[in-house]
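Problem 12. The chain below contains 439 residues. Write out its predicted structure in token notation.
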Amino acid sequence: MTTTRTPLAAPTLAAPIPSARSHLGLDLMLFFLADVRDGLSPFFAMFLGSVRHWSPGAVGLAFALSNIASAVSQVPAGVLVDGTTRKRLMFAISGAMVALGVLLIALVPGKAAVFTASVILGIALAVFHPITIGLSLGIVGRRGLAARVSRNETFNHAGNFLAALLIGVTGWLFGLTWIFILASIFALASAAMAAVIPAHEIDHRAARGDALPGASATPLAALLRRRDLIAFLAVCLLFYLGNGAMLPLASEALAAHHASGLFAASGCIMAAQLVMTLASAAVGRAVVAGVGRKTIFLVALAVLPLRGLLLMIFHDPLAVVAVQALDGIGSGIFGVASALIAADLMQGTGRVNLVQGAVALAVSLGASASNLAGGLIAQYCGYDLAFLVLSGAGLAAVIGCAALVPETGPRPRRDRGWIDALFGAKMALTNAVGSVVKS
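Solution.
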């Protein structure tokens, strides 16, 4: 008797159709995720300066330690995300580490505890970026990544807006210490939301950017020879060399010269996060409209030097809050566009999350140097010179991107010029604002 064998089905590269539960899980994870490095940084600086009476240089050192720990952990975290099938557990553990770190800062006095907490936070933060991109790719596939990353950033910034509002009220009513307790609750809630995503809906092959089943990952040495990748990472580093210390320094200056510094710092974060929410949604629409990734990325970079120069000119709390809204445009676009460019560059290599970790490494190195140098310059030469130096780093990022970073997305039609591209970006932003208003 002969048996007829049914041939194995050929692997399909069609984009998966995730359930509403998977989307909800990712939405809630990002909504509750406390953005400790950027969202809490001004309150962290105010707490150490006004409650613990630290000098600007010591505050900068605490930020630098967190960023250095994050930098050392970024690439190993990306490699681990590429290789593991327990991505939800990794995210949950990182959220618990964030909660532990912020509680140490709030409840244990002394520099040793703060420096230890800074290292814990840095290690935990190293996981969040690659694990979020890995989960997104594994759930929606490459074709759905642009919309999903835009949605990730939108929910993250919306959550940070709410957190900034609650933090400002909590700090006013109960004191700065309770700010960190509230942040720990947000972090634990984010960790718990990882369980909402069904494990079977995560395609771990797609999550690491494999082109075909069984394909071997590109050797690390080959990645180091990619000039386009090196140029892109250098631009990311320069952007955060200018961006990392700008908000903490603005908050320190407000706390030193104005009694309303707490409310102004909270207002800075709320303004930035609200604009980031709109900007993140606008990027997704702009990509669909055919605007190139590089064009979008350049907009984010160009905002930074302008923001630094305006902070040199305006010192009134309301003016600083208005200027800080520009951070929403720059950082909101950067978060989406950088993730898309990195995924484009690494598609088919099996190294998507490793390079997402490398992007976060460049960001950590830039932010670490920014906080350390910015704090020292502000301490010995004044805040205005510090803002000028940070603006110079932002201008270098613009020039480097324009000259060396390629367009990685689908090529626009030849008959579409800059006017059409800018019009598409304008329409995308208008639609995003309209959607938020209607909701």
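Discussion. Residues 152 and 422 are 24 Å apart (CA to CA). Students who got a different answer should revisit the alignment rule from Section 12.3.
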